[in-house]
Specification:
The chain is mainly α and 197 residues long. The chain has one domain: Tetracycline Repressor, domain 2, CATH 1.10.357. The protein is 70% helix and 0% strand. The chain contains nine helices and no strands. The termini are far apart. The relative contact order is 0.08.
Length: 197
């Protein structure tokens, strides 16, 4: 009876997990094979070399963090504010995608190919923000500024080590979102309570 071959997707997934844990230098064929409990020979049935795996990992990350997120946001619908928040939660609050995204941002600082892929992904994310924010504002300059603030907050909040006195990070982040959309805190709380019923 022939041994079952480890699927290509498992090599890519394990590569993404290792990337999130230790950066691109940690993504080694031997390491992945050991983590998968297989020999490294099966790797070469799917990939020419480590570089091919790294490109496949970038493809998978790009597909999952843009195509799949945008499709889900559109499928689940709702008003533009809730769609923006859903996209942010799916990408930047996901225990799976967030560490990968942050690792790719670090990697992009040292690799021009990765930097271009990151630029393409971030451009698609910004386009979605512009579209959603454009449902509330008409001035292109204001739309761009609000989209930038929203995107910077979604990423930057993960690097900030500051305390917020008697508030939680989630409370402050929600208030920041309210400010981006000119909502008073009470109105935002009432809207949230209405959605729950």
């Amino acid at each position: 009876m022939a041994a079952t071959r480890t699927p290509r997707e498992r090599w890519i997934e394990e590569g993404l997990l290792v990337l999130a844990e230790g950066g691109p230098d940690a993504v080694r064929i031997e390491v992945l094979a050991k983590r998968l409990g297989v020999t490294k020979g099966g790797f070469y049935g799917f990939f020419y070399d480590r570089g091919a795996l790294l490109l496949a990992m970038l493809d998978a990350w790009e597909r999952e963090s843009t195509d799949e997120v945008i499709a889900r946001v559109q499928r689940e619908g709702g008003d533009p504010r809730s769609q923006i928040q859903r996209a942010g939660v799916l990408t930047f609050s996901s225990s799976r995608l967030l560490p990968i995204d942050l690792a790719i941002r670090t990697w992009a600082r040292h690799d021009a190919v990765v930097a271009e892929r990151l630029r393409a992904v971030d451009n698609r994310r910004m386009a979605l923000l512009r579209q959603m924010i454009g449902a509330y504002y008409t001035d292109p300059e204001e739309i761009e500024a609000r989209a930038l603030l929203a995107f910077c907050m979604a990423i930057g909040v993960h690097f900030l080590a500051a305390d917020h006195e008697h508030r939680t990070r989630a409370e402050v982040a929600q208030r920041a979102v309210d400010l981006l959309f000119d909502r008073a805190p009470r109105a935002a709380a009432a809207e949230a309570a209405h959605r729950e019923h």
